[in-house]
Amino acid sequence: MGRSPEQARVLAALRQVELFGGLPEPVLQQIAAVSRPRDLAKGELLCDAGDVGDAMHVLIAGAVTVFRTASDGKRIALNVLQPPEALGEIALLDGAPRATSAEATEPSVVLTLLRQEFLALLSEQPAVLEPVVRRLGTMMRRLSEQAADHVLLDLAGRVAKTLLRLATPGSPPVVAITQARLAEMSGGTRQSVNQVLGGFAQRGLVHLEGRRILLTDLPGLRRRARPVRASPSAP
Q1: Which stretch of DSSP H or E encloses residue 60?
Q2: Spatial separation of the C-alpha atoms in residues 176 and 3, rounded to whole Å
Q3: How far apart are CA 228 and CA 157, in angstroms?
Q4: Pick from 130, 157, 131, 132: which is nearest to 145 by CA?
């Protein structure tokens, strides 16, 4: 019996996710069989910090921002996810409350895999564990790098690095993001990020087209994304 269009879509999405892409087809079919599609409206929370960590999600359409909220209410964006990306993997292993929140920044579709179903699958297919552990290692490196960036880079450096990370392939590469969202991700205010982008545009590093930022000088942005050396103190 052939697959339905929805089943084919789910399998195609899972094959592209780093977490599952190298698994045998029968295992992917098992994962697809227990994954539940969910539609999200723009601005809808997929999960909130403190929620029970009982599932992971695979983004197959749209965009999702992962963020934390400081004690003063300020949102700090940690990552903007594009399809095909997975989030909430740690919940599959420990089931602890969520440490971050995730919000759809445009109409989105995710596949949800419940922890209890994943553990049942793991008992049958232990090979699934290796890519999960590898993915967690990647996440830890990224979070450590972000923490270091806030110490070693000034705001312009963090903006440059964020733009390089979010750029989609093209000639020139493009980042589609609001300045408010870019400010959340780089740890600045909207006004200060606007000033940074204006400076980048004057130097020919970027070209601004509304919510689209064209990266016109990649080598220049990479240089700006490096730590700024302190000037020697005057004697």
Answers
A1: strand 55-69
A2: 35
A3: 8
A4: 157
Residues ≥6 apart with Cβ < 8 Å to 82: 59, 63, 168
Helix/strand/coil percentages in the chain, nearest 5: 45, 25, 30
CB neighbour class for 230 (10 Å; exposed up to 12, middle 13-18, buried from 19): exposed
The residue among 100, 98, 99, 59 whose CA lies nearest residue 81 is: 59
**Distance from the Cα of residue 62 to its chain's centroid:** 12
- On whether the CB atoms of residues 108 and 40 are closer than 8 A, the answer is yes
Q: What is the pLDDT of residues 20-77, one digit of tens each?
A: 767 788 888 888 888 888 999 999 999 998 888 888 898 988 989 988 888 888 888 8
Can you give the pLDDT at residue 144?
73
- Give helix then strand counts, H and E, for the chain: 9, 9
Q: Are 59 and 82 in contact, with CB atoms under 8 Å apart? A: yes
Q: Are 44 and 38 in contact (CB under 8 A)?
A: no
Exposed, middle or buried: residue 53 (CB in 10 Å: 0-12, 13-18, 19+)? buried
Whether the per-residue pLDDT at 232 is higher than 50: the answer is no
Peptide bond into 131 cis (omega under 30): no
* Gap between the Cα atoms of 177 and 164, Å rounded: 13
| Separation between Cα atoms, residue 41 and residue 151, nearest integer Å | 35
b/e string for 166-204 if b means 16 or more Cβ within 10 A? bbeeeeebbbbbebebbbbbbbbeeebbbebbeebeeee
The pLDDT of residue 231 is 44
Matching residue, tokens 């016109």:
216
